[in-house]
Specification:
Chain lengths: 111, 114
Amino acid sequence: TQLLEQSPQFLSIQEGENLTVYCNSSSVFSSLQWYRQEPGEGPVLLVTVVTGGEVKKLKRLTFQFGDARKDSSLHITAAQPGDTGLYLCAASGGSNYKLTFGKGTLLTVNP
Amino acid sequence: DAGVTQSPTHLIKTRGQQVTLRCSPKSGHDTVSWYQQALGQGPQFIFQYYEEEERQRGNFPDRFSGHQFPNYSSELNVNALLLGDSALYLCASSLGGQGAYGYTFGSGTRLTVV
């Protein structure tokens, strides 16, 4: 069974601060995805990474896939209140059609 | 271009009853997956439908069943509801099963079993 461990579980910061969220596993994945979910809504895809060592940037968000394709990080620069939400990493591997999700990091950015 | 549409948005059922949830995938998508998300947890995979057949199933009992129609829409049925079935049920669509480039999720159906 593939397990994804996300840390920290909760994060509360002030507007303008930087933060990093981690997603780790003992398994190798063919692809890893990051989603953001707001209360009462479904997850919204932020990025997909497929190549070990890959770095992708989305405005103030930087995503990195580990060289061994077992871990990933999400770094947010100069966080804003609009970044508040539950950040979920999800992965699939091999012939597996399902996505395995981590428990998420609940981020609160205070004005 | 409509995304994934789920209905109803909220539902309250009594223990032992049966429920049907509905999902219309994003235009151009042919695969539908269902997830259960308990409060404070990440979504858990229930099953995936492709070409009107269940292609993969997660660790959920047979009380959970589904169907996919020729227009790619899907239903999730849960029989003999338990209090523990209370959760947000999410439908996700993709083109092809593995969703290697991401899934599009609906806003979910919030099911409360009392």
